[in-house]
Amino acid sequence: MLKVWGLMAIVLIVLAGKVSSYDRPGTRKNVVMHPSNDDDHMTPEQVHISLVGSDKMRISWITKDSIIPSVVYGTVSGKYESSADGTSSSYHYLLIYQSGQIHDVVIGPLKPNTVYYYKCGGPDSPQEFNFKTPPSQFPIKFAVSGDLGTTEWTKSTLEHLSKWEHDVFVLPGDLSYANTFQPVWDVFGRLVQPLASQRPWMVTQGNHEIEHIPLLHDQKFTAYNNRWHMPFEESGSTSNLYYSFNVFGVHILMLGSYTNFEPGSDQYQWLENDLKNINRKNTPWLMAVIHAPWYNTNEAHQGEKESVEMKESMETLLYKAPVDLVFAGHVHAYERFNRVYQDKFDKCGPVYINIGDGGNQEGLATKYQDPNPEISLFREASFGHGQLEVVNATHAHWEWQRNDDDVSVQKDSVWLTSLLADSSCKI
């Protein structure tokens, strides 16, 4: 059957310059993942990690009952030379859902490009995990995919990601698609654990993380802020919804599409300050991540405030920085733009890439504007993921892998030159 679909895919590819469309099988059902042992209230689950500064890692996990939030770790399996303690918390939602105990422990200092073995909850915990720290030299490898959800397509995308030896995974918003039904967050945590416990996941929020219900639940981002703690304080931010971080040679801005972004807002002032303090000699590459795209030729999500007004507010800040790449999600398809500023080609503008194609249950956004604007170089409505290898201070290679009937197939690729290497683009 897979061979039949593969032949159909070849037949159904329609090329229009550098733009292709692809008719593929439809949506797939959501995955259901229960705890491995409902009677075990102490075993860690939903384990994921994230970067904290240049030499530390945050370990996050959930248990049903309270435990001492501690992690033991070392560079040899079964031998844990170090330990660290952290914090625990939980949250209610609509008085009918009570989360488990959410634990966060920051460990380090850690050596670069090194495999560490760790246990959540102490040396007697039943399961050992491991992760590899990012290297302290080029090349640096990033995997990118947004709008994941918990479907069979999501599962396939995660399997493809696990086969590519990346250093960091970047997610431009819309994680679980719980849409206020909190148990889906638990399913999502279990689904991503095999990958998220081995490589740092750096995420920003999307519209599906808002989960605000008028009169019933006034607080926004309750689950997101409680479950996915990002290193916002280390970057001078006052909100988990926007922050920045470094991976050797690369500075990444994680911006919030669904919090205030107008001039004078906390996020705007933080971004101005963050950009002023970047040392481009140490981080020659500069990237930004948002959820709602500023450039988009798909018919889906046109004219939304979070896209239009945020672009009007912040585009010039990114252009003057200058930012090399901007990743976005929200639109359930893939699209790569040329270097752009104020809706036109500009050799000193960022390359915009929309990659909200992780595999969510809402399906694909299959309709594009016609004719295709010249600034859009490649667009296709398929699930998949991206691979960015920053080779050195001046060059990087980007490719997009289509999730082609459970086989990862390269469909778009391009070499990129850092704007720092172009003397006509002033820093």
Automatic annotation (TrEMBL):
SUPFAM superfamilies: Metallo-dependent phosphatases, Purple acid phosphatase, N-terminal domain. The keyword Signal applies. Its EC number is 3.1.3.2. Residues 141-334 form the Calcineurin-like phosphoesterase domain. Keywords: Glycoprotein, Hydrolase, Iron, Metal-binding, Signal, Zinc. It catalyses: a phosphate monoester + H2O = an alcohol + phosphate. CDD domains: MPP_PAPs. One of its GO terms (molecular function) is metal ion binding. Residues 349-408 form the Purple acid phosphatase C-terminal domain. It is an enzyme of class 3 (hydrolase). Residues 44-133 form the Purple acid phosphatase N-terminal domain. The keyword rRNA-binding does not apply. Residues 1-21 form the signal peptide. Gene3D superfamilies: 3.60.21.10, Purple acid phosphatase-like, N-terminal. Its cofactor is Zn(2+); Fe cation. It comes from the Eukaryota. It holds the Pfam family Metallophos. PANTHER family: ACID PHOSPHATASE RELATED, PURPLE ACID PHOSPHATASE. Belongs to the metallophosphoesterase superfamily. Purple acid phosphatase family. This is Purple acid phosphatase. It comes from Arabis alpina (Alpine rock-cress). The lineage of its organism: Eukaryota, Viridiplantae, Streptophyta, Embryophyta, Tracheophyta.
